[in-house]
Amino acid sequence: MQTVNFKKYADIIVNLQMKNDSYYLIKRFDDDTLDHIRSQFDKESGLDFMDRFNRLSDEIVLLQKENVPPESEKCQQVVEEYWGLIMEFTNGDMSMLPKLIEIGNIDTATNAWEERQKIVNDYLEPALQVYFSRLETNPFEEVEQ
User: Fold this and answer.
1) How far are the Cα atoms of 8, 37, 41, 83, 85 from residue 80, in angstroms, in the given order?
2) DSSP code of residue 3
3) What contacts 120, CB < 8 A, 6 or more positions away?
4) Which of 97, 101, 80, 78 is nearest to 139 (CA)?
5) Burial of 62 from C-beta contacts in 10 A (0-12 / 13-18 / 19+)
């Protein structure tokens, strides 16, 4: 708490000005991830990405409420799209996966976004396992090696 991260606060202020409801996400990112985001997205593409991410997350919550099984074709199509967003975000850099897992790990939700993301994470975990087993690959194991 002795130092102030002005770049992070500037990012939060910009997101508040844009009325981006996901501004509190920035607090969860480390400096490397924030630098990656700044280099990967501008204002327009960042808002577009978050809009697609949020719409897909809403769709996943709906699948969970409807008890759609993780191995169903409907779920697997959504998982494929979700994984595509992760690949777009990381620009294919698998070394970012552990950081994203850490950022996305929500034990106790403190706001509506975290509560929704916790539902998404819990539903997606087995669905991603099915997805990767069908592809006969596991990028998370590849990162660990």
Assistant:
1) 31, 22, 22, 5, 9
2) S
3) 57, 60, 61, 64
4) 97
5) exposed
Look at residues 129, 131, 116 and name the one whose alpha carbon lies nearest to residue 65: 116
Domain locations in the chain as residue ranges:
47-144
The pTM of this model reads 0.75
Per-residue confidence in pLDDT tens, the chain, 145 aa = 455 555 554 554 455 444 555 556 667 777 788 778 778 888 788 878 888 988 999 999 999 999 999 999 999 999 999 999 999 989 888 888 888 887 777 777 777 878 888 899 999 999 999 999 998 877 766 555 4
| Interatomic CA distance for residues 54 and 113, integer angstroms | 9
Helix axes 73-90, 43-65, angle to 10 degrees: 160
57 within 8 A of 116, measured Cβ to Cβ: yes
